[in-house]
Amino acid sequence: MDSLTDDYLLNNISPEDPVLEWLERETNIRTTHGRMLSGPLLGRLLTTFSRMVKPQRVLEIGTFTGYSAISLARGLEGCGHLDAVEKNNLHEELIYEAFERAGVRERITLHLGDAADVLKNLAGNIYDLVYIDGNKREYCKYYELVFDLVRVGGYILADNVLWYGKVMRDPLPSDAQTKEIFRFNKMVHEDSRTESYILPVRDGLTIIRKLCK
Ligand SMILES: C[S@@+](CC[C@H](N)C(=O)[O-])C[C@H]1O[C@@H](n2cnc3c(N)ncnc32)[C@H](O)[C@@H]1O
Question: How much is the pTM?
């Protein structure tokens, strides 16, 4: 979507949570990769979606400084819980500070480590909602790793599936990220165990519903 549409949407949806506004500012000051943060347009969507699903258990792959984890945690039902997986331990202090300010510190467990390793330890869990936002070169692997952890009728969301429009180019750019996201989109599209939809919000968000095992 163009920036004019983004601005219009931002001016006509519910305002950003003040803690998330603070987190976005702090992320830009305290890290060198502020661009990775999902931001208010996607954050509000994640909160809305999570409130619709009312999940008891949520799993996130790729937490960065915690913006999307907090956005998703806003929709947790009752004493629901979110497992946030992040490979990089550089922003641990900021993440916990943000969870504390948002009042979700007790509702989110931060697992520092590579998703492939962490998910082995979470193998017994069943999730209502999984959010994939890790390394774009590993999306197919994440999908395979989390699929059995999602309950039938549960959802997997995946961010950046349009990859700046590069997945639509012909010929396809040869960089590893574009090739992997292209492969991921095809894999999801052809998976008869699911139904899915791509929302062209920001960089594209796929909503996948698991129909059967
Ligand atoms: C786009 S950022 C996530 C943004 C975050 N969801 C937000 O809303 O601000 C991607 C994150 O995934 C993490 N990551 C990359 N590969 C990973 C892996 N194999 N396991 C866990 N985290 C990973 C990166 O360190 C980075 O912080």
Answer: 0.98
